[in-house]
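Feature request, filed as a ticket because there's no other form

It would be nice if the structure record came with a short human-readable summary line next to the tokens. Right now we just get the raw output. Example of a typical job, pasted below so the devs can see what we mean:
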Amino acid sequence: MATPRINRRGAIPSALVDTPKRPRKSCRIAEVCEPLVGREKEIQFMEDVIAEHMKSETSGSLYISGTPGTGKTACVDYVFRKHKGKKCLINCFAVEDCRTIYSQIWSELRGGNDGGLPLTPSRNQRELLKLEGMLQEERDIKLIVLDEIDQLRTKDSTLLDRIFGWPTLPKFHVIVIGVSNGLDLTTKLSLRSAGKTPKKLHFTPYSAEQVTAITARSIHKEGISVHPTAVALCSKRVANRSGDIRMAFSIVKRSVIAAESPSKKLNRSEGSENEPADLPPVDNGVKISHVQAVMSEQSSTKTLSTLPTQQRILICCGLLLSKAKKPITVGALDSKYSEIRSSQGLPPLSQTDVVHFCELLASLGVFSLKKNSKNVRLSSVSFKSEEEAEFNVVGKPMMDSILNGTIGGGV
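Raw output as currently delivered:
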């Protein structure tokens, strides 16, 4: 099926979304669409890296990063399934004991045959030697993909150092791909000399247009009738908050439930194992009001007004800097907070605290944080949506005074 075409405003053609289909016993919002929408460049990059090393018969490595819900796993799985050579894919989140990772790689490369033996550290060491022997002696390039490699981080990083070190060793024939939510994981490795660090691919959060296209394809595939403006509204909210496509699927799922039975409560636990994957059929379609109701409930249950005072003050500092058209950096936020806290008798924040709070606000979809590895004070901070950030801090006397310039002396 062709990729949905989007106009400049991010709206989707009515024919794709607002056309009721024949009744269905149940419907499911598919979270993986093929070919994957909005990640064509990332998929091509991965395929090119693999093809380059397969053609030249050389080893290599690739480090993929990005916040949750940006399509990393779906794209890696798509590329992995297309690869025809000997390969293994392991989700490290499911690895109970990271000391057994070598045994699991060895088993997967041999077709999943582990002989029925329990995974133990001693067995792991034996099979590590066998695995490294295979990677040296067999001429064909092996593809090893490790998802959620954050789970393998140890205090001395020996596991990741060894695995990412394989492609740098002579006579090894392997491509290692690691997928992580963090940007800085490779800086923890000891492979920092020129030419030995992995190639890098970063997945940015989805834009409103991408969320619209992915959601449109999914609901069209399932024959659900959804008002085009409702999809655009949902997409804009998700893009402003975090760019996490899972949030869009959650909003649509709950909107379908609301449309099917208005009397049903919306507060079903999201991501719960008890939440049914199959949704009820929608006869009259999902309207704008259904989506608005779901998003309103999400806002009320996860409002920024419950944040600690220091974090709300940092938001105000960022708003003041933005309104003055000054760059927002960790250093600028630190300096502005120091001006304000001295007049209010608030406890000081260390630079580490400021960075930590910026990371927390980024996880809530308030800030975007781009760290500067050489000087943390120059790390760039930006708002996902200034309007939403300001909405959640106004109305409190201290916050209003800060924003009005009566505390802290303006910018």
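Something like this underneath would help us a lot:
The beta strands are 60-66, 87-91, 142-147, 174-180, 199-203, 367-370, 380-383.
Confidence is low (pLDDT under 50) at residues 1-28, 263-282.
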